[in-house]
């Protein structure tokens, strides 16, 4: 009887340990070298609706934390899908989503098909709240690399998710990738972890660097009790992204004009796009003595000094295209589902808009095309449209595609507000 009592007690403790992650107990944050618990997963876009992490028998499992609201996450899917096909029998890229419902994620994958009808091969979990607690992060996408024993071998940002790194791991080589650790980046002034600086004693500070390993793109401003900005930073941001924020130039891509000798620095306009670390920068300014106006002007002056640029908002006559609809046309009646589109995603999947207003469609076009698109119609309804993957490669392809839906693009010259970035004189 004594032996049986001890055995039951041991089994009870074991069960409590195994169930602890699912019973509201605080999940211990994991790090490189730790072993990930055998999480129970609910999946979409996979042959099994439920599985355990340990049942994914692969040499490498990469957990990709994402949400439907993260454009950078979605923009990376074509690359991830390609890597999954390339290393299919040896790796599993597993999308981890705790925010969105099963139905919304299913709809997302169902709409993203190639001309042949193929979908992304990436499975996604949903409804899991434990994994995010185990792997704390502030920015997404966020990647956790696990070996076949579920040991954590790397925690990275998107720039490390490349075939060369995956192949090196599969070859048995020891990989040493930059550790993405952005959970506490708001607490201290950038790069002030030496113990010498105390953020409470900083009167004025400007920090400017290139790309910082281990951090995702992040921007934030801080205000004091009087509502005045005293601190602003950008981490791993492209020049245009920094300047748009600093000058409050919240215009679409088609109304941003860059006229500089060295255009290489401006190849990347979006912090969430495919990463080229040479084009990303970190900048922080702290000034506890200035008022709001002086802070903003000093911020611009410091940016212009470091980058050797000048910038301003002005009105100009520019070439644009006016969207018109001369002939009445019966559009496909939307089915009442939520508005969605994949217009800015790369890859060979068909482009689509679903239950989208024409105004929202034109707004999306202005984030893609080089010349402004103006809505010259009075159409107030919703649209379902589908386009070839390369429709945005040039204006003629777009014009021909829109004609099928009763629209024309008319070239004009109009005066409008633009954001000018030039070399500093």
Report what the structure shows.
It is a single chain. This protein has three domains: about 1-170, Glutaredoxin; about 200-305, no CATH class; about 315-420, no CATH class. It has helices spanning about 1-20, 70-75, 75-85, 100-110, 130-135, 165-170, 240-245, 290-305, 360-365, 395-405, and strands at about 40-45, 50, 60-65, 90-95, 125, 140-145, 150-155, 205-210, 220-225, 230-235, 255-260, 280-285, 310-325, 340, 350-355, 375, 380-385, 410-425. Residues about 1-25 have low confidence and may be disordered. With about 425 residues, the chain is of the alpha+beta class. A seven-stranded mixed sheet has the order 2-1-5-4-3-6-7.
Structural class based on helices, strands and sheet pairing? alpha+beta
What's the CATH architecture name of the largest domain?
Answer: 3-Layer(aba) Sandwich
Query: SSE order, as H and E?
Result: HEEEHHEHEHEEHEEEHEEHEEEHEEHE
> How many strand elements?
18
Shape: globular
Give the mean pLDDT.
84
Summarize the main sheet.
Answer: 7 strands, mixed
- Rounded to an integer in angstroms, the radius of gyration calculated over CA atoms is 25 Å
Which CATH top level class of the largest domain fits? Alpha Beta
Q: How many domains make up the 3D coordinates?
A: 3
- Spatial ordering of strands, largest sheet: 2-1-5-4-3-6-7
The CATH homology group name of the largest domain: Glutaredoxin
Number of helices: 10
- In which range does the helix fraction lie? 10-25%
- Distance N to C terminus: 91 Å
Strand content: 25-35%
Q: Which spans of ≥5 residues are poorly predicted at pLDDT below 50? A: 1-25
Keywords: Cytochrome c-type biogenesis, Disulfide bond, Redox-active center, Signal
Protein name: DUF3738 domain-containing protein
Organism: Pedobacter frigoris
GO molecular function: antioxidant activity; oxidoreductase activity
């Amino acid at each position: 009887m004594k032996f049986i009592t001890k055995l039951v007690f041991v089994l009870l403790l074991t069960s409590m340990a195994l169930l602890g992650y699912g019973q509201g107990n605080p999940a211990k944050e994991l790090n490189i070298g730790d072993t990930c618990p055998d999480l129970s997963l609910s999946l979409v876009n996979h042959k099994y609706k439920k599985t355990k992490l340990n049942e994914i028998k692969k040499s490498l499992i990469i957990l990709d934390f994402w949400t439907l609201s993260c454009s950078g996450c979605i923009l990376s899917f074509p690359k991830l899908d390609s890597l999954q096909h390339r290393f299919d029998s040896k790796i599993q890229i597993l999308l981890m989503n705790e925010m969105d419902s099963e139905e919304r994620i299913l709809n997302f994958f169902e709409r993203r098909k190639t001309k042949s009808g193929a979908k992304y091969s990436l499975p996604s979990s949903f409804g899991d709240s434990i994994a995010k607690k185990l792997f704390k992060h502030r920015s997404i996408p966020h990647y956790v690399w696990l070996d076949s024993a579920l040991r954590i071998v790397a925690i990275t940002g998107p720039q490390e998710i490349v075939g060369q790194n995956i192949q090196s791991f599969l070859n048995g080589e020891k990989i040493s990738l930059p550790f993405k650790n952005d959970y506490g980046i708001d607490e201290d002034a950038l790069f002030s972890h030496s113990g010498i600086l105390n953020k409470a004693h900083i009167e004025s500070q400007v920090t400017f660097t290139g790309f910082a390993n281990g951090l995702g793109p992040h921007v934030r401003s801080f205000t004091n009790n009087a509502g005045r900005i005293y601190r602003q930073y950008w981490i791993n941001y492209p020049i245009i992204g920094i300047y748009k924020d600093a000058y409050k130039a919240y215009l679409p891509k088609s109304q941003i004009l860059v006229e500089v000798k060295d255009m290489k620095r401006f190849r990347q306009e979006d912090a969430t796009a495919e990463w080229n670390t040479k084009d990303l920068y970190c900048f922080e300014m702290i000034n506890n003595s200035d008022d709001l106006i002086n802070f903003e002007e000093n911020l611009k002056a410091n940016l212009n000094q470091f980058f050797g640029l000048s910038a301003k908002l002005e009105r100009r006559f520019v070439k644009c295209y006016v969207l018109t609809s001369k002939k009445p046309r019966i559009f496909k009646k939307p089915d009442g589902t939520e508005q969605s589109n994949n217009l800015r995603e790369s890859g060979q999947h068909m482009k689509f808009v679903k239950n989208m207003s024409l105004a929202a469609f034109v707004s999306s076009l202005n984030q893609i095309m080089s010349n402004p698109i103006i809505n010259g119609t009075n159409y107030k309804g919703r649209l379902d449209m589908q386009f070839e993957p390369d429709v945005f490669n040039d204006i003629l392809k777009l014009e021909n595609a829109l004609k099928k839906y009763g629209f024309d693009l008319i070239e004009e010259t109009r005066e409008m507000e633009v954001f000018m970035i030039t070399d500093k004189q």
